Amino acid sequence: MDPNIVQHIDSINVTLNAGGMNTINIILAFVMYGVALGIKPRMFVEVFKYPKSVFVGMACQLILLPLFTFLLTLVLGPAISFSMAMGMILVAACPGGNISNFISSLSKANVELSVSLTAISTALAMFLTPFNFWAYGNLYIKFADVSMLVGEIPNLKIPFFEVFKTIVILLGIPLTLGILTSHFFPKAAEKMKKPFQWFSILFFIAMVVLAFVGNINAFLKCIKYIFIVVLIHNALALAIGYFNGKLFRLPKPDVRTITIETGIQNSGLGLALMLGANQIFTNFMPQYPHGVPGGMLVITAWWGIWHIIAGLSVAGFFNLSDKRAAKKAARSK
């Protein structure tokens, strides 16, 4: 990897005051509340009548994606910096993204399965996000030639209680309130659901702009390289969902849902954890004492932008394949 690119990536630094941190956390909580407006308790009953798709989806997102991300960081080797690898592992440790349900509806996928997978992965994220980041981060430090990348070998210690508390506030409480709203005030929830979906997209873009507004030159110098790394990582995530769905012979709508759920991650949570509680991620990296490591920041932020583009592209591909199949069926009659 070109040392100049590493320098530009790691020079990107964002430090927010308490007001900025609180604003990001509050808005992310509102976004998660909006996601939960589409979740009705009866959905879980219907989906768990056929649990195979749920288990495959959860395995893809919570087990296989973090594992294969770790393996990808080893394969890429010196082509990525240490902080970029940590960013990739953090994204893989996050739960399903808040626009996956929207993309699933565009793709004619199983929306109820999508909503259920998002809800389950979000609930489990309170435990699995810090655990997966800690576990695979330490494995990367052990098996990669980290000393060559950063000199001093870092000591990765995650304050689990602090991360757990942050995720409960950002995800757990809004998710519970959203489900309760959907149950007791279904008409109001239905009216609010669409505006919240668009708001979540605009919010993430605003977060990225906020992150890079003071570092635009360094960002532009490294974006081509970051684009390739995130493209490979996201393609891997989509492939994990798609091929495992096919392997277990799931119905076509379920395969599409699991592909989307695995390929769209809540990188907004990763950004919020970094920007709103960056001491969690800087304690183990003394070479970045003044804020969030640039590689983590850039990978996580660009992932959030790219998975919107990738998700819409996948939805377009699925719809195009349906049209081709319909034309082929019409010709055969």
CA-CA gap between termini: 56 Å
> Which class do the helix and strand fractions yield?
mainly alpha
Report the C-alpha radius of gyration, rounded.
Answer: 20 Å
* Count of separate DSSP helical elements: 15
Beta-strand content estimate: under 5%
N-to-C order of helices and strands: HHHHHHHHHHHHHHH
**What percent of residues adopt helix (DSSP H or I)?**
over 70%
What sort of overall outline do the alpha carbons produce when their principal axes are compared? globular
Query: Which stretches are low in confidence, meaning pLDDT under 50 for 5 or more residues running?
Result: none
Major sheet: size, sense and barrel closure?
A: none
Overall pLDDT confidence: 80
- Tell how many strands the DSSP assignment holds: 0
Question: Would you mind describing this structure in some detail?
Answer:
By secondary structure, this protein is an all-alpha fold. 80% of the residues lie in helices and 0% in strands. The chain is built from 15 helices and no strands. Helix 2 runs antiparallel to helix 13, helix 4 runs parallel beside helix 7 and helix 6 packs parallel to helix 15. The longest helix has 39 residues. The protein is globular and about 60 Å long.
